[in-house]
Specification:
The protein is mainly alpha-helical. The protein contains 23 helices and no strands.
């Protein structure tokens, strides 16, 4: 009971951690979490009674919640282009720790006393503070990036006259005022000024959003229909996720399956889950579909995997089911932060994620009260598995429908360019038109010097455009199976 309460503390206080992330640096929140975890383990080493034990486990759970939130959201702000992949790597690291820590603790308990083991774990956790200190504040790298961007714009401005001398000289002939070069310089100066104004407006917007109050963020999330729907579906999803691992051993015992088969199936799950988290992040980073749609598909896949074990009811079913669950359940950890980031600003998204996790905590407690009732009424753990399947399927369908009602921008055009004939043909036509326009412009410019050269350039450009259109049509005639299916889904 005490250890289960510790796991609930991890997510129950996530709104506090999420709110702290909107106010201070991520490494400060992570450092506070590490100190709380270490303090909890030291207290566990010398707990004289059950009351101190409860306080110690609460400190550990609170610290895990703070450090986990800090690590996840550090990855989301420090990586812009590969954000989803970074989140997948972070969650995979958490999976590696969960997979390796029990064996490590077993070695410690075999060679040291209980108090010495707890102190050793506390010291190991404190070493993580050194890694946290290597994470520079967000303001540092944003300022550096802005400075490099300004230098790049200034470099383009300084070299603008040299790069465009030929264009200016061609246009000066037709200019009545003879001031074309000055107008060119003014336009570049105006562009440079617009770039600086854009950076300043972004900084002002960021400062405004960073000063958002708690009341504002609560109103922002709890008046958003998409967020409320997603919170409900995530609560259903976590019920199936948490209950399945508690029910499977009892279901195996009911079927007479040996315990070592169940433990081996869990090992298979852990081995598959770790790389699957990275794969989920890579898939989400491609933005072929929204993260919410991807989470919905994973929920349905997990439900079907558990349904397989409930219907098949053999030891082989456990291995096959856990093999697929390792992939589909990996989305439970790697995709929720991306769902929030797709629809909310990064300055407040961590608080929204904390609200989701606290709701999932309450849903987990509720599920552990519902499953014994279903078992008592039905007399079989298979009925509980069917209930879990229902929650996962319903959560997945809700997420898919929500992703269609509240869509976000995805790279559907990229898929269709690879596999959809009509889109590919349109792309080829657009490419041919662009090539023809460029050829016409080049021909007109060259005509002022030599008509024969312009004619040759136009003929060459037309030949190139025709070849490009022919190649694009050939590509459209042989679409791949994967891209056709993706287009049909959309």
């Amino acid at each position: 009971m005490i250890t289960s309460w510790q796991s609930k503390r991890c997510t129950l206080h996530c709104p506090v951690a999420g709110y702290a992330l909107t106010r201070v640096q991520h490494r400060i929140v992570g450092a506070v979490g590490m100190v709380l975890i270490s303090s909890g383990y030291v207290l566990l080493a010398y707990a004289p009674n059950i009351y101190v034990l409860c306080v110690a486990t609460s400190l550990v759970g609170l610290g895990v919640g703070f450090s986990f939130m800090a690590m996840i959201w550090t990855a989301t702000i420090y990586f812009e282009e590969k954000k989803a992949t970074a989140v997948g790597l972070v969650t995979a690291g958490a999976g590696v720790g969960t997979f390796a820590l029990p064996s490590f603790c077993r070695v410690l308990f075999d060679n040291f006393t209980y108090q010495e083991t707890m102190i050793f774990i506390a010291g190991t956790v404190m070493q993580s503070l050194l890694l946290l200190m290597l994470i520079r504040p967000e303001s540092y790298w944003k300022t550096s990036k802005q400075s490099s961007n300004n230098e790049l714009v200034e470099g383009k401005y300084k070299s603008g006259n040299k790069l465009n001398v030929s264009t200016v000289s061609l246009s000066v002939i037709e200019d009545e005022t003879g001031n074309q070069q000055n107008e060119f310089q003014n336009s570049n100066c105006q562009s440079y000024q617009n770039a600086k104004d854009f950076d300043e407006s972004k900084n002002s917007s960021s400062k405004l959003k960073s000063s958002a109050s708690l009341k504002f963020m609560l109103r922002l999330f709890f008046t958003n229909k998409m967020f409320l729907t997603y919170m409900l579906s995530s609560c259903l999803l976590i019920q199936g996720f948490a209950s399945s691992f508690a029910v499977f051993p009892l279901y195996a015992e009911e079927l007479g399956i040996a315990k070592y088969h169940v433990s081996t199936a869990f090992i298979v799950y852990g081995v598959i889950e770790i790389p699957s988290k990275i794969l989920q992040g890579i898939l989400a980073n491609q933005k072929l579909v929204s993260a919410l749609f991807q989470l919905g598909v994973s929920s349905i896949g997990a439900g079907c995997s558990i349904l397989l074990a409930a219907v098949w009811a053999k030891k082989e079913a456990f291995y096959v089911s856990f093999l697929f669950l390792g992939f589909f359940f990996s989305a439970v950890m790697s995709l929720p932060p991306l769902v929030i980031l797709e629809r909310f600003d990064t300055k407040v998204a961590s608080f929204g994620s904390g609200l989701i996790l606290s709701g999932q905590c309450l849903a987990t407690v509720l599920s552990f009260g519902i499953t014994p009732i279903i078992r008592a009424k039905s007399g079989s753990w298979s009925a509980v598995l069917y209930y879990i399947v229902g929650t996962l399927l319903f959560a997945g369908i809700m997420n898919i429908i929500t992703s269609k009602i509240f869509p976000v921008e995805v790279k559907l055009g990229r898929l269709c360019e690879l596999g959809c004939p009509h889109t590919t043909t349109a792309a080829a036509t657009a490419a041919a038109t662009t090539a023809a326009t460029a050829a016409a412009t080049a021909a007109a410019a060259t005509a002022a010097a030599a008509t024969a050269a312009a004619t040759a350039a136009a003929a060459t450009a037309a030949t190139t455009a025709t070849a490009a259109a022919t190649a694009a049509a050939a590509t459209a005639a042989a679409p791949t199976t994967y891209t056709v299916l993706a287009c049909l889904i959309h």
